[in-house]
Write a structure and sequence with these properties.
Layout lengths: L2 H33 L1 E2 L10 E7 L4 E6 L1 E2 L2 E2 L19 E8 H6 L8 H9 L4 E8 L8 E6 L1 H13 L7 E3 L5 E5 L10 H12 L3 E2 L6 H4 L3
Antiparallel strand pairs: 1-11, 2-3, 2-8, 3-6, 4-5, 6-7, 7-10, 9-10
Helix pairs in contact: 4-5
């Protein structure tokens, strides 16, 4: 083995070790951030606006009523944006935020490629809001119900609406009942789709993890 080959192998080992340490550190910090409560004193009211958080194991999103507490989402998610406008008759919206190329390029989890994940994690200013027209979910398992005070719900809605890019592009979704909308915000490993959901709940005043890059940091609180 030549001297240069020996140096290269040693450099590759050091790089692999550094990446492993970085990944472990990120995972530990993410779990710790999700375990530290923001809005520690918050308690749910007995009556209010019922929303939901739902997880597919990788991504956590919000589900909200289309009309409640003075907030009307119907103008934000018109029927004409759907492949089948009849689905606009559903009374709830599932809402998520994420990186554009990841969203549009992975209609199925089998479409996810390491390069897509790495590109999103290293940073992108191209983000989208994903809206799905859905019936009211059934709480349980990967779907958790949260009751908010009207003022809390209005703050949550204001945060989500501020994430839309005014006059931005619109894209057809994965199915007949959903669509994508150009969004504001920078996506990276620190501000993931799950962190955005946690930020929205925290802005509303709800007790949730202080930093929530992983689904557990949101779901464990409800």
């Amino acid at each position: 083995m030549t001297r240069y080959a020996t140096i290269l192998r040693a450099a590759l080992r050091r790089t692999a070790l550094a990446l492993a340490v970085l990944a472990c550190g990120y995972a530990l910090l993410g779990l710790a951030g999700g375990a530290i409560p923001a809005n520690r004193g918050w308690t749910p009211p007995s009556n209010g606006v019922r929303i939901f958080v739902e997880s597919n194991g990788i991504h956590v999103g919000l589900v909200v009523p289309k009309v409640a507490a003075g907030v009307d989402w119907r103008g934000w998610a018109p029927a004409r944006d759907l492949a089948d406008p009849r689905y606009a008759g559903y009374d709830h919206l599932a809402i998520g935020w994420g990186e554009q190329d990841f969203f549009l390029g992975t209609p199925r989890w089998s479409d996810v490629r390491p390069g897509t994940i790495i590109a999103a994690a290293t940073g992108s200013d191209r983000t989208l809001i994903h809206l799905e027209h859905v019936p009211v979910p059934e709480a349980g398992g990967t779907v958790r119900a949260i009751v908010l005070r009207p003022a809390e719900y209005r703050r949550l809605a204001a945060y989500v609406q501020a994430s839309f890019a005014p006059g931005g592009a619109r894209y057809r979704g994965y199915d007949m009942n959903d669509a994508f909308y150009q969004a504001r915000g920078h996506y990276d490993a620190l501000r993931t789709c799950n962190a955005w959901t946690g930020d929205a709940l925290r802005h509303a005043g709800v007790r949730v993890g202080w930093w929530t890059p992983f689904p557990l940091g949101v779901m464990a609180w409800f």
